[in-house]
Amino acid sequence: MSSDATSIFRGILVPIVTPMKDGGDEVDEKRLIELTDGLVDSGVHGLVACGSTGEGPLLRFEERKRVTEVVVEACRGRIPVTAHVGALTTRESMSLARHAEEAGANALMAVQSFYYQLSWPETLAYHRELAEATSLPVIAYNFPASTGVRFTTDQIVELAARGYIASVKDSVGDALQLNELLLAHSNDLVVLNGWDALALDAFLHGSPGMVWGLANALPEVCVELYESAQVRGDLQRAQALWKGLWPLCDFAARSYVPSVKAACELVGLSVGPLRRPLQPLDAEDRDELGRLIKSATAA
Known about the structure:
Distance between the termini: 37 Å
Structural class: alpha/beta
Order of helices and strands: HEEEHEHEHEHEHHEHEHEHHHH
Radius of gyration: 18 Å
Strand order of the largest sheet: 1-4-5-6-7-8-9-10
Helix content: 40-55%
């Protein structure tokens, strides 16, 4: 495992929201730059462009390239930028990966085909070709809710042993598998938590970082949880923060991207509408979300 991977894949990595205009049909680059600057200033440790929270799968191919460019340019090297390049075809992923490297991204994240349920040989081939496409370290995205395929621990370790990945974003929601990876295989690859409701558990078991969509709206609170639990070992403070954050994580899991965008608006960040077919929260859910945000930021 390279030192680059351990330094890039740490702390709170924010899958940055993609602000929209024109009813969700166009990316609002001005707001994207403002959001990037605000997140950098808040103290987060890295950004992920075109992730699930950023509506990456709903962006047109050239939009994905442009969003990556804008985020990299706005960061100006202050924190690392990971470009999500997962796509339906290997060719598209490889093209996005090469572009991300040329644009100055520091790393890649890649969910495999999210329509066809790939066999293990197909999965190996996908990650091999992607790894060969650039020199950037890659985060594999274990996201069975999207792909229909759940990696076993042995499969994740094999991907790392073959040199195809440097890290995994674990979005399974299985605390037992996550802890197995953290406790038995942290020397093999960087294990990042990608399941909000396991944030504190993952940090306490040694996860060096987390890809956390809600950090778009509450970056300081998320960073403080990480620093309390992982850096300072202040369990009392971490538990106090988590008492406010967990209900918010639980709520957001019902409708994640609409919840994150609504949370941004509720804290004063203008991020525009969702891209269809996603729909905004109704008034009742928005009110509940507002109450949960107040509770989470009061700890």
